[in-house]
Fold this protein.
Amino acid sequence: MFPQPVGSFAGRRAELDRILAHIDQDNLFFVYGVGGIGKSELIYQLMRELGAAPRWADAIPVLIDVRPGTTAPRVLAELLATLGSGRAPRRGQPTEQAHLSEQLELVARRLDERRHLLFLDDVHHLPAAEVAEALGYLARHVQQSRLLVASRRELRLPPGAPPPVITNRGPLDAGAAEAMMTALASRLQVPPLAPEQLLRSSHGSPFHIHRLLVRHAPATGSLDDTLAELPASARRLLLAASVAQHRPALATLGRALPELGGLDDAVRELEQAFLVDLGRGDLVVHDLVREALLARTDAAALATAHDDAAALCQGALLTDQPPPLLLAVDAIHHHLAAGRPAEAWRLIERWHSALAAAGSEHLLQEPLQRLRAALPAHEVAIDLLVARGLVRASLVEQASRVLARLGAERSDAEEARFAVLAGEIAQRTGDLPGAERLFARAVACAHDPDARFQAQLQGASTAIFAGEGDRARALLTAALAELEAPTPRQQARAAWALTVSWMFDERYERAAEAAHRARAALPASGHDDLANQLTMAETLASIECNDMPRARRAAGLIDEAGLRARVAALYRAIVRHADGDAAGASVALLEAHDYLRGHGDSINAYIAGYHGSAALAELGMLGEAQALAQRSAELAERAGLLAPAARSLAQQALFAAEAVQCGAAHALADRALASPHLGPRSRAKAHCAHAHAFTIEGDIARALEHVAHARAAIAEPELAAAHPAIDIEHAAIDLVGGNLEHAVARAERVVADLRHGARDHDVAKALLVLTAAHVARGRRSDLLVAQRTLAQARALADAGKLRSLQVGCAILSAALARREHRDRAAHELLSDALRELDPERGSVYAGTLLAALDSGGGGGLAARVVPGAMALLAHLGFSEAVDCYLIDQHGRRAATAGDVARERELRDLVVDELRAVIVARRGQLEITGRPMLCTLLSALIQARGAAVPPDALYRQVWGVAEYHPLQHRNTLYVAINRLRSCLREAFPSREVIERAGAGWRLADGVDACVLLAVRKAS
């Protein structure tokens, strides 16, 4: 409970009113003043008055009393525990002084989640620079709560921090001092002092006014005299409370210090002498009393005081529920201050695991360093604990140096711990074979079955990271078989590793089921962190399975206040993204990626980057999406996560295609497909990237080839959840290729499959393809269906701010308007989309939008847009529908009738497959009636200067499955000679077709193109 002000509080009305006038607008308040001047009582009174104010009545008051000798991280750890964040994981620097930024971020988040009135008292006991930096950070990042700070010295905030409201508290004036004295004398039933005598003896200090009235000795009775008159037991108790870094509870004094005789009398003596405050349930020592007492205490008495303070800490640890773990850190420091390193080491052995689980392991690093010199017999065990903390904090190089200084003399148990730590270091640096050898060594040295089992799990994890899922699962089965009766925790840990193995293999259905079963089998308590990990795995696997209802249920069970609060927040952001809020999720995912990457959590940083880049792409921010996906792939490669690295390549290939970087898309997809660690879903995604790029380039035949390869990659029934993404791609290819009946039918099936439980983005994309197919087909019934499906797609795109799909919705809205002969409305729709959505100009969506705006306007943009988009616009009615592709050495693009006429006048050779005509010499000569020769020349032009072997040429031109030289060679040679003869009529002075090795090619310098029907390849 927050302290109440004393009943004799007087004066300070102007100071209180000034703070109250600023409390609604400002968030940081400093109260300065010398010791005993009443800084704390001013804040206590302020808190009472704020409790009666409507806006602040529900705010939670919090007091953090900074004690001499404490550190900033220790204070922050206490604050986090008070705010309900004490179990947050430790991921950053393990040293106390380097831990501030991470802890401050957690503090700021908690203070902004719910309104608090935080009072930091006596911060002058901390380093001024650290305090100023911390308060400057909180002032910038906290909106909901208020920070009140009392200090004896001025604090200078860093540049850019909001200025604080400062109150300099001086001595009470004569009127306020007399009012306080009158109120206090009445309460104590003692005679008041003369006003002039009161001011002369107290100098306006509330502390000294209290002491003067309590002691009844205004002229004498100095603080030093009072301390000198104390009985031994009272003095010892006062010393223990003075050096303690917490406020000892009265209820624990007798249990913790049983050897201190006459404890009740000692407490009463201290209270009567106004040396302690007992009115709030704790033994509180004023700073002025503490300073005066410690100034006249010798080293031996001080050591005894630290022993007593350690006993007070341990008494609370053993009796309070839950135990206040930070008191274990305090007790360790007290034992070290008393010169008892052996007792400090015993406490570390007893409480280290609990402190590590609570995220406070970093507070033991400095004591461990001191103990290493004091206890050489325990040097190996101490170094192993130091290295363990460094590994958990991902300070791999420092941990390696610590392990390197260990001697060869180690027990089996120490050797097992050493091998596990060294293996983790090797694993994190990408040396998976070395890690596996070290984990095998740990298994051999394990001193008990559980230690052996834990080492075996680490070995299995190495196999998982190496992409060897089957071997990892065999190792897990063997490890469980060795245990006579596996505990629920051991079974759950094995299930967790099994779940991860299925996820790395992209068998998400199996992963979700394994995680669900293991979590359901765990006991209700004692395994919160493990249950949390299993729940997060089930959430992610369910999203990958397109089972959003299950993902939402699992996400609702994640304990965000548990051991992995950061990671829990990451998984909530992934669910938020899958639910359609790409804009909100992208911010959280980017923040999680940067934080986790900076703190060494490679796997979760990769997950954040993978999903964050997908969210950015859906928002139309393709440049940022590509950069983040590349960083995630590099992170996975450095960490030895081979399967995730390959998966990122497939994702990058899709982004490159969307950004109309088709060459890069093909290269990235080929790199992904070349990886032996690529899972079936990512293999399908890489083929889809190829298909997408070929569709954009207008090569429908090759796009369909890769769609077939994608389907083959996920042919197993358990991978059925990956089919809709391929079906959407296939429907889009049918649409661009002009196969509208197939496009409509396929898109309708996809929409029906995705209606229940799929991600909003996937549903919206399928609806968009279906709408476009209906608009392109153009029947009256099609247009009615298109209006309905477009409204559904727009609702999902707008809800998630999916910018690329919003652009698609605008284009289709304009297409519907054009079908209804509302050309002006169509143009306005496109113009508004360009202005409001501002898509990246390098994306296929933006190019299509710009070309649609340019259609009929003569701006020439349509001629520069990619062929696939041009063909789509033709189907949608934005450009002249010629159903024609133009193919030359630069690639393939859609062409209008005007383009065809222009090319006939510009090219050396034009092969018009639509009319089976060869046009030569810029339209001066036409070779007609030779359809076979047209097809033959077309095949050579489409090879873009490369030699075409006889078998490939024959199969392509004659449409047969196999080429038999003895049967078909003569037919091919005759056709080639006829083609050459025809071309000599047009070009008597040059050879257009050259022999190249075993095949033929188009000669260099021949400016040729092919006009190909769009629907032919479909």
In short: The two ends are 76 Å apart (CA to CA).
